[in-house]
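User: Sequence recovery, please. Input:
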C-alpha cells in the first residue's frame, strides 16, 4: 500500500466480509462457556484475535483484516462478554483464566503455533499470552498498546486525558460525589457492583461514554449512549480488571518479562494521538523488544476503525502472510 490518504474510509483497506466456517461454544474452567468462531482458509496460517476491553467482545469486522485465502482466523468472546456465558460475570474471570482459555482454544482446534493479533486490552492479553506460552506464538501484531500499568490507569481515570477533553471529563466525574474523586475506579466499582441494576446500568453507560468519546481522533467528545446490557457487561468487566491491576504480579510486569518474547517478531501499530492508550507505552515496548517494530500512524487515535490504523494492520498481516507463504 502507498501513503494512506486521510479521506479514505477504513473499509477500503479491509478484505470483503466473510462468514465463519465454524462456530462453537467451548466449556472452560470455572463454569464459563466461550464462544469461538473460525473463518477464512481452514488450512491457512492460524491467527488468534484478541478483542479489547476487557469486556468488548469480537465483531464480524474483525475478520476483515486477514486475507481469507491465506489465514485461518480464530475469534472468540472472552469470559463474560459477547456470546460467551454467563454474561457480565466476573466470577472466575482473571487474566490468567483468559490465558488458559486461549490455550484451551489452541489445543481444541489443533493449532501448534499462531499469529496473535490484539488491540488495546487485546494487545495486553497478547503480550501476556506470548510471555506465558512463547513456543506457540509465531508473530505478534499489536494495536494501541496498553501495558496495564498504574501510570496508564492514572492517565485515563485520574485526569490526564481530561486535560485535553475537559467538558467530557466533567460529565464523567459528575456521576460521582466530589469526596470520591480521588479514586474514580473505586468509586465507579461501588456503583457498578452495587446490586441496584438501574444504578449499575446508568454508571456503566457513563463509564462507556467516557471511553468511547476519546476513541477516535475525529471525535467531537460525544461518546453516545451504549445499550444498557452491553454497557453493564463492558464496564463491570473493565472495572473488575482495572481494580485488580490486571491480576499481574507487579506493576510493570510486562516490560520486566520482555525477555520471554525477544525471539518473537512483531509489529506495533500505534495512533500518534491516542488519548486512551498514549504512544509512550508502545514506544517503551518497542525500545526493549528487539524484534518488535513500531509503526506510528500520524493522523490517528485509538480506534481500530480509523483508516490509518486499519491500513497498517492489513499491511502487517499481508506482510506476514507473504513471508510465510514464500
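Assistant: Recovered sequence (326 residues):
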Amino acid at each position: 500500500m502507498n501513503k494512506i490518504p486521510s479521506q479514505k474510509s477504513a473499509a477500503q483497506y479491509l478484505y470483503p466480509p466473510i462468514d465463519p466456517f465454524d462456530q462453537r461454544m467451548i466449556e472452560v474452567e470455572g463454569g464459563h462457556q466461550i464462544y469461538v468462531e473460525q473463518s477464512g482458509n481452514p488450512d491457512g496460517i492460524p491467527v488468534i484475535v484478541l478483542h479489547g476491553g476487557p469486556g468488548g467482545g469480537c465483531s464480524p469486522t474483525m475478520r476483515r483484516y486477514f486475507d481469507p485465502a491465506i489465514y485461518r482466523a480464530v475469534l472468540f468472546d472472552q469470559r463474560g462478554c459477547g456470546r460467551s456465558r454467563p454474561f457480565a460475570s466476573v466470577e472466575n474471570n482473571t487474566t490468567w483464566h483468559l490465558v488458559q482459555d486461549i490455550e484451551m482454544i489452541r489445543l481444541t482446534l489443533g493449532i501448534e503455533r499462531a499469529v496473535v493479533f490484539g488491540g488495546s486490552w487485546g494487545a495486553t492479553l497478547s503480550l501476556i499470552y506470548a510471555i506465558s506460552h512463547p513456543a506457540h506464538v509465531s508473530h505478534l501484531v499489536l494495536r494501541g498498546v496498553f501495558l496495564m500499568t498504574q501510570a496508564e490507569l492514572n492517565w485515563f481515570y485520574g485526569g490526564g486525558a481530561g486535560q485535553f477533553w475537559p467538558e467530557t471529563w466533567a460529565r464523567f466525574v459528575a456521576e460521582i460525589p466530589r469526596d470520591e474523586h480521588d479514586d474514580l475506579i473505586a468509586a465507579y466499582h461501588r456503583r457498578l457492583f452495587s446490586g441496584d441494576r438501574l444504578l449499575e446500568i446508568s454508571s456503566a453507560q457513563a463509564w462507556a461514554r467516557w471511553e468511547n468519546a476519546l476513541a477516535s481522533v475525529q471525535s467531537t467528545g460525544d461518546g453516545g449512549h451504549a445499550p444498557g446490557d452491553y454497557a453493564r457487561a463492558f464496564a463491570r468487566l473493565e472495572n473488575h480488571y482495572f481494580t485488580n491491576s490486571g491480576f499481574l504480579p507487579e506493576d510493570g510486569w510486562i516490560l520486566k518479562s520482555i525477555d520471554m518474547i525477544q525471539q518473537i517478531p512483531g509489529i506495533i501499530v500505534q495512533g500518534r494521538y491516542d488519548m486512551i492508550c498514549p504512544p509512550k507505552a508502545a514506544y517503551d515496548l518497542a525500545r526493549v523488544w528487539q524484534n518488535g517494530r513500531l509503526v506510528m500512524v500520524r493522523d490517528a487515535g485509538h480506534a481500530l476503525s480509523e483508516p490509518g490504523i486499519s491500513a497498517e494492520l492489513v499491511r502487517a498481516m499481508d506482510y506476514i502472510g507473504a513471508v510465510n507463504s514464500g
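The longest strand covers residues 32-40.
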